[in-house]
Specification:
By secondary structure, the protein is mostly helical. It has helices at 2-15, 23-44, 56-68, 74-93, 119-127, 133-148, 152-157, 190-198, 203-208, 217-231, and strands at 163-165, 171-176, 183-187. Strands 1-2-3 form a three-stranded antiparallel sheet, with no helix packed on it. Strand 2 and strand 3 form a beta hairpin. It comes from Flavobacterium columnare. Residues 2-105 form the Phage integrase SAM-like domain. One of its GO terms (biological process) is DNA recombination. Pfam families: Phage_int_SAM_5.
């Protein structure tokens, strides 16, 4: 059954955390598994399926579910399917299925053209008053990324231990980049430091040893589009 293969794979990943896999990669596999189980319940009224029953129709239906019910964009959908495909290929390599149904899956990740914010747009974002605390939080996380140059995954992993006072007396962020594994030393600018201070008593920061109470990447992207609309910034400029 598919759940058994998924669970066994994820358990092996947990044993190899920080050796071969990152926590974010493990979360992606667990999220994909969770989405597929919910898809089975939604579409077929079941919670598991024999791996031999998975065909291109099942795959395309899962793709459609992610885009419509889960509201995933194209690239998120394709990345979930790529992870799912890795599980299917495990079954193929073990001889549990005779052919790979993903050979018929044709969707691709699309290149996203991003343009930078103008100084005026950045100032608008910085001084905008939002009607809800969640939009304010997402704005603050985005600004923190802007003033540190850190990607979402790197901001998500930050703890108080990443903040160090340098020999110049100024505060710095010391962090190994997730994607490149290269060490970074980033000066903590006043705006970024003020954002840290704003949330240092947040329950997520206190209970989970996080520098900032960051939301999931999917929620961040969705709320950033809403923020772009509120601020009159073109959506193509929102991450």
């Amino acid at each position: 059954m598919l759940n058994e293969i998924f669970n066994e794979h994820n358990k092996q990943m947990e044993l190899l955390l920080e050796v071969k896999y990152s926590l974010s990669t493990l979360k992606q596999f667990k999220t994909t598994h969770s989405h597929f189980v919910e898809f089975l319940k939604f579409r077929y009224k079941i919670s598991d399926i024999p791996v031999s029953d998975i065909d291109i129709e099942t795959i395309n239906n899962f793709d459609y579910y992610l885009r419509t019910v889960r509201k995933c964009n194209n690239n998120s959908t394709v990345k979930y399917l790529m992870i799912f495909g890795k599980i299917i290929r495990i079954a193929l390599l073990n001889g549990w299925i005779k052919s790979d149904p993903f050979r018929f899956y044709t969707q691709k990740v699309k290149t996203v053209n991003r343009t930078i914010l103008t100084e005026e747009e950045l100032n608008t974002l910085l001084h905008k008053t939002f009607p809800s605390s969640r939009l304010e939080l997402v704005r603050d996380i985005f600004l923190f990324s802007c003033f540190t140059g850190l990607a979402y995954i790197d901001v998500q992993q930050l703890t108080k231990n990443n903040i160090t006072t340098g020999i110049d007396g100024a505060k710095w962020i010391f962090k190994n980049r997730q994607k490149t594994e290269t060490p970074s030393r980033i000066p903590l600018l006043p705006i970024a430091e003020s954002i840290i201070q704003k949330y240092h008593q947040d329950p997520v920061c206190l209970n989970q040893d996080k520098l900032l109470p960051i939301l999931s990447n999917q929620k961040m992207n969705a709320y950033l589009k809403e923020i772009a609309d509120v601020c009159g910034i073109l959506n193509s400029k929102a991450p």
